[in-house]
Specification:
Blueprint: E1 9-11, E2 14-16, E3 22-23, E4 39-47, E5 58-61, E6 65-68, E7 74-80, E8 87-90, E9 99-100
């Protein structure tokens, strides 16, 4: 059986932190304002070759914070407690290679 090659995705990331530190790589969603003392991670997932949005990619921060990209490729992981976490992007359908930070 021939092994299928997985595609590559591009991940856009923005962070709004509990102490007001922010990295704006994308425009922050208007409704995305974390509660005091918490943070959020947001962005857009696109196909690396076609630049088309990808739906269904799971964004995971640490062990308990997740969201799935919508039809426009957007994701928003909210209410993240302060700390240092690994960040993973995975495709449950295994079309795209997993990405971790």
């Amino acid at each position: 059986m021939k092994k299928q090659t997985k595609k590559k995705a591009l991940i856009g990331v923005g962070v709004v932190g509990a102490v007001g530190l922010a990295a704006y790589l994308l425009t922050r969603p208007a409704h995305a304002e974390p509660p005091p003392g918490l943070a959020l991670l947001y962005g857009k997932v696109t196909d690396a070759d076609t630049a088309q949005p990808i739906s269904g990619i799971v964004a995971s921060v640490g062990d308990g914070y997740t969201d799935q990209s919508d039809n426009s490729g957007n994701y928003l992981v909210q209410n993240i407690q302060p700390g240092t976490y690994p960040v993973f992007f995975t495709d449950p359908l295994e079309r795209y290679e997993p990405i971790s930070y």
